[in-house]
Amino acid sequence: MLQRDFDLRSSHLQSLSSRDAVVALFANLGYDTGARLKQTSAAMGFSESLAHEITHIERIASHEGGELQVSVDPIFKSVAWPAR
Fold first, then answer.
1. Tens place of pLDDT per residue across the chain (84 aa)
2. Inside any domain, residue 82
3. Which structural domain range is residue 22 located in?
4. Distance in angstroms (rounded) separating the CA atoms of residues 46 and 31
5. Is the pTM of this model over 0.85?
């Protein structure tokens, strides 16, 4: 359980322009961000076809002894939206 309240404002979310900014937000929320860990697509359970499209994914925060883990940044080589 988090130990304190955090007054989350829209400005906090609007400033999320990098991995480090996201990590700082979770640190302000009280999460342990000291054990960042680059993940693999296989470790995350992604299908092989999706795994080929991901260039980076990282665990940025952990809480309650690992019961809640926050991973961020599935950076894809390309993203395509279906045409309507």
1. 556 777 888 888 888 888 888 888 888 888 888 878 888 888 888 888 887 777 788 888 887 776 777 777 666 666 565 666
2. no
3. 16-76
4. 25
5. no
